[in-house]
Design goal:
The chain has 275 residues and is an alpha/beta fold. The protein is built from ten helices and eight strands. Helix 1 packs across helix 10, helix 2 crosses helix 3 and helix 4 runs antiparallel to helix 7. Bound molecules: D-malate. D-malate binds next to loops.
Amino acid sequence: MDGRDFSGDTRGEVTVAARAGQPKGKIHFRRCGVGPVLLMVHGFPLSGEMWQNQLQELSSHFDCLVPDLRGFGDSSPIFDGWSVADFAEDLACLLEGLQIENVIFCGLSLGGYVGLEFLDRFPEKLSQVVFCNTRAEADDGVAARARRLMAERVRREGNGFLSREMLPRLLAEVNQDAELQPDLRQLFRAASVESIALTQIAMANRRDFSGQMANGICPTTLVGGDDDRITPAEQMEQWSDSIPGSCFWRIKRAGHLPPLENPAEFNRVLRSLLS
Ligand code: MLT
């Protein structure tokens, strides 16, 4: 891939390096559009498919780059000992493979945890960051234990319970009957048991980045969903108050997944990054 003409919708793969005991793998991506590169990183346990509305509507403003994190979508599996930092290292390899020097990084929830690691390791590769429905704090003991229990349960029972139990919590009350439920159920079912278990453990072990952005390293935008019960908008706003010069946007009629629940308003936020 030469990283120049992506005005059409391109799908590709980049081989990512072997690291401490981990074999090489492939990162699958979609790329579409012209303008500054906008790297959009999905939440758990989804894939790049969750950014479909953004690929369709933002490609005349941005060179949209949408990977499947390793373990999800069409990318290679992950292994015991996988960490959130490994996801970030993979994304740096992806950019190197595509000869992209810097990006606007937009991560939702798990994608935001990956963004914080990325910002810590590769600040020179970032022109702006957008953190959606995510948090800088590490898990406390209770949350980490719940993730380990979920990892055990998914290995025991398979992934069927996940969409039944998680999906209603992800969507705003007004979107509980929305037509996007079937698509999301399909994405949940597509995630492998091992990816779900290993990513839960990786998230339980993730580093704490609260306070890390107080020095305003990079222009920062925070996005919260009005009815997000997982990462409440109030928490996102408080986080924004602690980051000098940052912007906060509260998306109406959205829970934990504003890019899917209210794409028109979410896309307006992303377009505002250009002004
Ligand atoms: C996500 O949407 O990626 C998850 O809510 C992340 C998490 O479980 O903390």
